[in-house]
Amino acid sequence: MDISTMFSTMSVGMLRSFGIFVLTLVGSLPLGMVVALLKKSRFVVVRAITSAYITVIRGTPLMLQLLVWYFGPFYLFGMNIGNWRFPALILGFVLNYAAYFAEIYRGGIESIPVGQYEACEVLGYTKTQTFMRVILPQVIKRIMPSVTNEVITLVKDTSLAFTLAYQEVFSLAKQISASQTSFMPFVIAGIFYFVANYIVEFVMKRIEKSMGYYK
Amino acid sequence: MLNMNRRQFISAGMLFAAPTVLGLVGCGGSSSASSGAASGDAYGEGYTFKHGFDQEYPPYSFIDDNGQTTGFDVELAQAVCKHYGWEYQAVPFNWDAKDAELQAGSCDCIWSGFTVNGREDDYLWSKTYSDNVQMILVKKGSEIKTLADLAGKKVGVQTATSAFQMLDAEGEQEELAKTFGKLEVYPDYTTAFTELKAGAIDAIAIDVTAGNHLIDGETDYEYLAEELGNEQYAIGFRKEDTALCDKINEALDALAADGTVAEIASHYPEIEEYITLGK
Amino acid sequence: MILQMDNIKKSFDGLEVLKDISFEVDKGEVVSIIGPSGSGKSTLLRCATFLETIDGGEIRYMGQRAAHTDENGQAVYVSHQELRHFRSYCGLVFQQFNLFPHYSILKNLTDAPIHVQHRSKEEAEQTAMELLGKMGIADKADAYPYQLSGGQQQRVAIARALAMKPEILFFDEPTSALDPELTGEVLKVIRQLADEHMTMVVVTHEMPFAKAVSNRVLFMDGGVIVEQGDPISVFENPQEERTKQFLRVFEH
After folding, report:
1. Is A84 within 8 Å of chain B by CB?
2. Does the residue A215 lie in any domain?
3. Which of B258, C52, C191, C201 is deepest in the core (most CB within 10 A)?
4. Looking at chain A, which residue has its C-alpha nearest residue B30?
5. Tens digit of pLDDT for each residue in A128-177?
6. DSSP B180
7. Structural domain harbouring A32
8. Any chain B CB within 8 A of the CB of A3?
């Protein structure tokens, strides 16, 4: 197999890796905020469940979680999992990253001085207005470096999709490497991840810069 | 090198994680999620045949020079589908997870250079179609000439393969494995072969068919004359899927008779002599 | 009568911070509250501005009751919706300014009027610019809080409170977080507001300022109002021993 065939074969996998990346972010960034807010809920039960969720997700390997989401429905309920591979994969990634983002959000929210809330209260803002207009924008700025870290980790973590034999770039690299007895597929995969993260870093820096107008 | 370490790490994780999960959740599960179609009618024209295989097992199932999924097993499965007018669906899976994939119904069978020996009671087996000889691969001119010479040496093997099971606890060659200096277990033979080239290990225990593919185009490697073991390949089905198994057996006979099997085998000279179907 | 607080009680973890305090402010009056730290001055202000809930007593604004003690001795507040209405009567200037760092100075002044009071952007901005002009920082409208000195930030905070057109403005030690050379510009602004008969309650440690600006001075200690009266009599002829002791410290 020449390099260009190798590359074009792997490009399908790159597209799939990119798909995992985008869907995970689209799902977990908002879900993380929901989880972070649930963790501050008035109801003890809700708080306990949210804490348990975060603890379990952060305390177990993503790889294992993916296996649970994919094979769980069969082992627990005897369901046929014929078309469940990709949904299980995305579910596993989203729920995993939501837990990490939730903790980042929570840290960000808690770092906002209480004076900001009091100023809003005295000015008559509703709770929603306070959060959306004053707290959240400041939280986003503060958590950007941590979010960038997570996003970069996610780019690399997409390779864990191989656990469920989803044919993304890393799985394909393994397979082509096996048939071609060549290390080249891994070099291509490595370059792919590196370039992807280079772009992520560039974009995130731009976003951070756009919020640098205040301190 | 970085990649390799990561892969080894991941594979180790897989080995640890898969049984744990399966064991944990297994207690609540039922035995099968198959459609359980008992009558042959369910496998009429237009049936989607889900071929479960390891995409990293050349020359039976792998990605070819054009980036296409192929191999002896893939071509044969496709020929069976053509024979019945079935829809062919490739379901590449991780070898470690093959049982879960089969039981959970994501595929109809395990058909990927799958060794019968030692697993006789675990699956419903089709007729055997290929011999599979396990050999020891060494560098030409190596001081290792017999199995006994492996004492104190480092031997590499791919996890969850026949050669591995043979050398593992309760395997046929467990006693031999105990004489090794170390048995290095790899996620795939490509890594093991790279390490053999680099001198990190002294020998590789491998199915001869997979070994032939590995040393294709290389001249510096040879097998020991002594065989490690001899086994047969067949297709593994869920135990209740007798109707499907029968259909496949019929098709294999038909394809052997009309020369299709021999034709496909000729695409893979390194295994041609081991194909037993129709001989 | 703008504000009337009767028999206010407030405890934190069993520690009584306000012991049955009664206190009222007339329209146009400037009241200074002085006293050692921990005397309950700030808590009184926070209860008046609804940042803290009282344990007992009654709070009235413009004669309307915002909170009272029911037959079980529990303090009961009006509904959330009504409370927002009461909040609109009062403004509060914090010791730490608490400006919104992500908003420009102008937006700090217009955001609440537009989104809380539903005033038009044009009107809110016009009011804001007038207030900034009055505070002497009209040129900073497009700047962000971090670009301003502490004194300037506190003047923005005062303008932000005034932009809501409150009936009464509270100051919680407005110069305590400032470098000494910056307190003057803030006190000058408060003095200017006093001249315009803005109703104000100022918790402060600036004795000369309290003496010069207030109509009335309250000395608080240990959760009670120990002494109150016009500035001259409280500062120059205190009746209570504790007041004398406290003022002696400040003479040095």
Report:
1. yes
2. no
3. C201
4. A78
5. 999 999 999 999 999 999 999 999 999 999 999 998 989 999 999 988 88
6. B
7. 3-210
8. no
